[in-house]
Prior knowledge:
mainly alpha; 9 helices; single chain; two-stranded antiparallel sheet
Amino acid sequence: MLHEFGLGDEFLALLYRGDQLLAEAVAAAGCPHCGGPLHQANYPRKPRGGRLFEALGAFTLRRSMCCGHCRRRSLPPSLLFLGRRVYIESVVLLASFGWGATQGFEAMAVVLGIPSVTLRRWAAWWREVPTLPMWPSLRARFAPPPPDERALPASLLLRLSNDVGGPAAAVMFLAAKSLAPLTTTLRRAAGFVRVIATQLSAKELTQELSIAGHPSISYESPRH
C-alpha cells in the first residue's frame, strides 16, 4: 500500500542512506560523553509494516555507535526508525494520519493489519509530543501558525505538504527529517540532521524516485 504513495523500496533505501550519513556525522563528532572515538556498534532490527509495507528484508539494521574509550553508546538520529517502535516510521506516520478519516481504531486495524491496541498507543504518544523537549524547536521552524498540536501528526504532514507543494513521498521525507531528533537522546541531534540536509533533499528525492504523478497528502475530516 505504501507504493500507492510512491513510498516503495527506493524511498526506504533513501531513508536508509540518510541513516548512514547521520551515523557518519555522529562518528565524526566523537563521543559526546568523553570525546573519545566512536566505532560502529550496529544492531539488527526486525521492523514491521503491517499491510502498508510487508517487504522490509533489506532494512533491518539500526545504526549505533560505541565509544572506544568509555564504551558508552551514542545512538544517531534516524529517518527510518521512530525510536524503539518495531514499525518503521513511515508506517507510524501514515497509520496515525489515516485514523482521522475512519470510523475508529478497530476499522483501521482491519485495513492496515496493525493491532488496534498499537494504534491507540500511537495516538496517545502523539498527544505527548508537544510536551517533549524538541517540540518547541520543531514548531519554531514554521511561520505562524505552526502545526496544530491537537491534530498531530496530520497537522504536521498537511503543513509540510502545503509548504513543499510536492507529492506524498517528498512530504514524508521532510517529516522524517523533522522528527529525527525524536529518535535519539543526543543533544545535538538537530545539528546532525542539518549536516546531512545538503546531501539529502526533497529535490533529490523527487529526482531519484521519479515520483511525479504520485498522490499528494490530503485529509478527510473524521467521521462522527
